Amino acid sequence: MSYCVHCGVELDATATFCPLCHTPVADPNQPPDLRAPKPFPTQRGEVAPVSKQELALLVTAMLACVALCCGLLNVFLKPERGWSLYVIGAAAMLWLWLVPPLLARGMHLLLRLLVDVAAVALYVYLISLDLNGKAWFWGLAAPIIFWGGAILLLLGLVLRVYRRSVITSLTILIGSLGVFLFGVEYLIDLWLYGRWDPSWSLVVLTICLGLVIPLVIVRRIPSLREEARRRFHI
Fold this sequence. Notes:
mainly alpha; 3 domains; 66% helix
């Protein structure tokens, strides 16, 4: 039994160098046994990458089976209600979220966002079919969904420019949340009352501005910025 002269780790009889600190083994009284098997693999192995097409096919098959089984069950269980539309819509939404980006890694941000927004709109539309609510879908739900998609698109484009700054990204996220909720209340008021009567969204927007202003100040002053990075490890 021998030990490394540098770090003291116990060495195997076949070791020619320390596996921990890579110090060469030089023991004239006990030369390395080059014929005995090594205690660890000497060749580096790698796991073969998973085929994207096979993974996409597996996800598609799983979601399709769930949607089909629930659709058939709906025929025999409470056929007067289209409750299976909720499951089918969720499966379709998940498929649009997972499979196209998996098959097209270089998908443009705008195209990917359009697919995601379309998936959410499709799901809500299927719910409106079960609830006989096409009016509220086109008058309220669809505008809110597309308004959120527009905010996300703008947010993605801006964060691509400022993605290296955590403070700037946090500032943009908080500001975007306030603007989104402000627009949501505007759309709700137009749908319910036919006029805009701002109330709670102004409170949320004020809170967001109250958080954004100090972050902007911290971002502008180098000493405060470095102190925030040290304090919060960002």
